[in-house]
Amino acid sequence: MVLLEIIGGVVVLLALIIIGAMYNGLVVKRNRVQDAWAQIDVQLKRRYDLIPNLIDTVKGYAKYERGVLTDVTKLRTSLVSGSVQDKAAANNQLSQALKSIFAVAENYPDLKASQNFQQLQQELATTEDKIAFVRTSYNDYVLDYNNSTQTVPSVWIASTFNFKKADFFQAPEEEKQVVKVDFSDLNQQSSSQQKPAQQPAKGQQQKPGSKTGKSATADK
Prior knowledge:
- It contains 8 helices and no strands.
- The protein is mainly α and about 220 residues long.
- It has one domain: Up-down Bundle (de novo design (two linked rop proteins)).
């Protein structure tokens, strides 16, 4: 009888040790995910702080349509609000919008030569590289954590203690489409500077159905 009690006590103790080990393992993995996300969030907030300076600098050289700057401002706001997926989608869209702005800036030598613009461009590029780097680590930690919360036997511990699935830092395919940046005002400026196509002289205008002299000679 005593032996059975001892064996039973040992089994219970081992079960508690195993449960505790699995619980602690899930906590460690969840903390890694949260720490990696904190690093991404720092870079997103840095990008958030740099964008207003970039917009002010560009506005001083090029007359962008108000809608373009409004779209960039909205995406900027999304960087610090919403879920992981919301921030990931906004970050990807914002990257495309900024690339479009930098591409059009190539047409403005004074803007390209601006030290402030060059510095902002470099800082934004560096920030984007850091986001891409920490995103890889974050997604690796999310994969490891999610596997642990969905596989036996740790899935039982995860469901009991409410370890929820973590989101990857990536945007759905429809959110990865290039943002359409409208530079119609620049195009209008360019077209207004072009000379209109030369119209034929009044005496040279052809009547409908008439043939050129060469063609008329050929018909004779």
